[in-house]
Predict the 3D structure of the following.
Amino acid sequence: MKRITLFLFSLFVLTSAVFSEKLELKSNHPNEVTEITVAVAANFKNPMEEIRTSFLKQNPKYKVTIIWGASGQLTSQIRSGAPVDLFLSADMDFPEALYKEGFSKNQPKVYAIGKLILMSKMGKNKSNSIQEHLVNENTKYIAIANPKTAPYGRAAVELLHYYGIYEKVKDKLVFGESVTQVNQFISTGSADFGFTSLSTALSKENTNQFWLNVDPFSYTPIHQGVIIIEINKNRSKEEFNLSHQFFEYLFSKEVHRILSVYGYTAPPI
Amino acid sequence: MILDFDPLWLTLKLALLTTFVLSIITIPIAYWLTFSSFRFRFVIETILNLPLVLPPTVLGFYLLILFSPNHWLGRWIEDVFHFRIAFSFLGILIGSVLFSLPFMLQAFQVGFSSVSRIYIETAMVLGKSKWTILFKVILPNCKPAILVGMILTFAHTIGEFGVVLLIGGSIPGKTKVASIAIFEEVEAMNYQSAHIYSAILVAISMFVLLVIFRYKRSLTMALTSKK
């Protein structure tokens, strides 16, 4: 028993020593590498990893740190002074609000457009229409993201109205706080169907057997906006340039190629 | 701004029911764990205390899998009862009960083991049954511990978020409790209603705890004097 205590104690001392050294390193050489911090909506995780990799391949001497989270959370963090240089939201409202509050000099710009699809864990008849699938009495639960807060949820509600089945399926709806949670409802099979993003269907982790494209005119396009946050940091000139460079890079041909691979449409130029 | 009182009512209902159900099922579990001589008791104890370390969302995710129609258990429930536990009030109740079980259990075990062995052995010598010993000797002698367990569970459930979020599906009037309503209001940038919900939650919790602490003695008497 004593030995274990001694071992744990020495482990604790060692780790604290290592960490304190790390902290010191940071404070002694603040300007070794130019680094920017990018806050990104979690639904954009897969394409963003690749965008970062390809950007750093071209600019190896920089560092790009990413904070993931729900757009609303990230917005609150930026408001409370989180040291963020760029904010890639899952919608237009949050960056718009930040812009109006003076966090950015420029209006949000659309960097990607999401597509809504209908998905199920079980194999379903592909030839049936969306209405047939959803109104069917064997369909007990349909998962959608919260329409109050999530763009994909709003789009799903618009679509149900467009097809004229909202009233019929209203009581089958269950709400996830984000597309990510809707995906959990679908992939566990707890919900029979769910409205999620095309990027979910195209991701490597997707094991769901069935998904169906929806009429692109049935909902308002899901625009995702980006802004450069101007007021939270005392930026060096290099950091300022790097954040603008990264911003420009989001609209490059290379990134547009990555977007299409992950199920997003590039914004019209 | 119209405030919906359903989430608050649901939170209260969930907290009260969770406390009630847990009080009943934890007593025999704690009794057995405290006085059994089973060799692998610590294994059982470990499993029951897992919710302490598991992130609530993980617990919720496992329950979601368990209750889904693709799992034998979920399918069986659906076939027999024509009922899906996920996305129902019963679902979030089961989640909350599992999640708060360690809190209740810890408090009860501490209480049970603090009861003097002399009383228990005396009762045994007098040939009293295990249940008589439990209700007439042990429970009356650890009222404070039972009360602490109940208060902890109640308070814990009021703020319960992760498990309910995952198996509840945020259905208004059914599974959308106050903590989730607050989260959604913040996400939607309606800070005012989030503040109001939060203030009401704090007020309710304060009130309940005040009443409990004020009438502690009479309450525990009422709890433990029934057969």
